[in-house]
Amino acid sequence: MPPVILAIESSCDDTSASVCVDGIVLSNVIANQSIHEAYGGVVPELASRVHQQNIVPAVQQALAKAKVSKNDVDAVAFTRGPGLLGSLLVGVSFAKAFALSKNIPLIEINHMQAHVLAHFIGSNKPSFPFLCLTVSGGHTQIVLVKDYFDMEVVGQTLDDAAGEAMDKTSKILGLPYPGGPLIDKHARLGNPEAYRFPEPQIQGFDFSFSGLKTSILYFIRDNVAKNPDFIAENINDICASVEGRIVSILLNKLKKAADLYDIKDVALAGGVSANTGLRQGLQKMGEKNGWNCFIPEMQYCTDNAGMIAIAGYHKYLKGDFAGQDVVPLARMPF
Ligand code: KG4
Ligand code: ZN
């Protein structure tokens, strides 16, 4: 019988459940938490409470959409980490309880590996080895992917993540959280050459975004002092220029890594891979360098259980199961 995997993702502020049958993701239900908007960022305590409310309906919907009965599930895959501990606890506890009640195996998944493995959901899959630029609200990594679970982080941020830089910039501009999608929206209407923000000079494949954040803060502060309407009058150009700089920082490092490792299959993953400028920038760079570029479908860019399901399927095939004593990890290396 083809394996039926139920997958749970609850590492941050999205509660998600997915069902995958024989390696095909049949449902991917995502319950977003709008409660954090008023606070300008995710409030961990509130996130875990809302996960608790959302998790059962999300699982029920995922099973219904996939037309699968809970009695037919062969294994439960869940995000073990990294993420917010209180949020992870809800998903891990649910997965354990479900597995215990049905006497089926548990499969632990690393959230960052799952973002990379989202590329194996569709029919257009990269070939090993490939490079994946994983950019989210908490991480910025260049990953050399040698096999499904054999990945090496060759570069990462030394301070803020790319998504954090987007979100902090939007906060400075007075836009609501999460700001990344709004920066994207305004950037489409602006000129990326309007303002020049510095590119940090960091050795190797590592990144740094904290200096950029400070320079944006000072730039806005100084201009608003001269003209109180500066943001309102120039928001599109500011967003286009900030986005352009973040994209160039990311893609310049990716190009260096692709050259050094002599890689032609190059992928994007994580929430920031939903960004239009980054998607277009990668395509352009790929055409110039003869790369095969892989960009996930929108629903598999930001946090989702579909990616946990596909990762779970590949672990299921290996018989790689977790025990009932498994605990979530806020920090979880590859
Ligand atoms: O992977 P993800 O959903 O959650 C984490 O694991 O962090 O990524 C969320 C991040 C946020 O910083 C959000 O602002 C950013 O992804 N993001 C975007 C876009 N959509 C989401 N950033 C830029 N442009 C977008 N269209
Ligand atoms: Zn994520």
From TrEMBL:
Cellular location(s): Cytoplasm
EC number: 2.3.1.234
UniProt binding sites for Fe cation: H111, H115, D303
UniProt keyword annotation of tRNA processing present: yes
Cofactor binding: number and manner: Binds 1 Fe(2+) ion per subunit.
Domain Gcp-like: 25-309
Catalysed transformations (reactions): L-threonylcarbamoyladenylate + adenosine(37) in tRNA = N(6)-L-threonylcarbamoyladenosine(37) in tRNA + AMP + H(+)
Record-linked Pfam families: TsaD
Cofactor: Fe(2+)
One Gene Ontology term of the molecular function aspect: tRNA N(6)-L-threonylcarbamoyladenine synthase activity
NCBIfam families: gcp_kae1, T6A_TsaD_YgjD
Role summary: Required for the formation of a threonylcarbamoyl group on adenosine at position 37 (t(6)A37) in tRNAs that read codons beginning with adenine. Is involved in the transfer of the threonylcarbamoyl moiety of threonylcarbamoyl-AMP (TC-AMP) to the N6 group of A37, together with TsaE and TsaB. TsaD likely plays a direct catalytic role in this reaction.
Family membership noted in the UniProt record: Belongs to the KAE1 / TsaD family.
Protein name, UniProt field: tRNA N6-adenosine threonylcarbamoyltransferase
Species: Mucilaginibacter antarcticus
Taxonomic lineage: Bacteria, Pseudomonadati, Bacteroidota, Sphingobacteriia, Sphingobacteriales
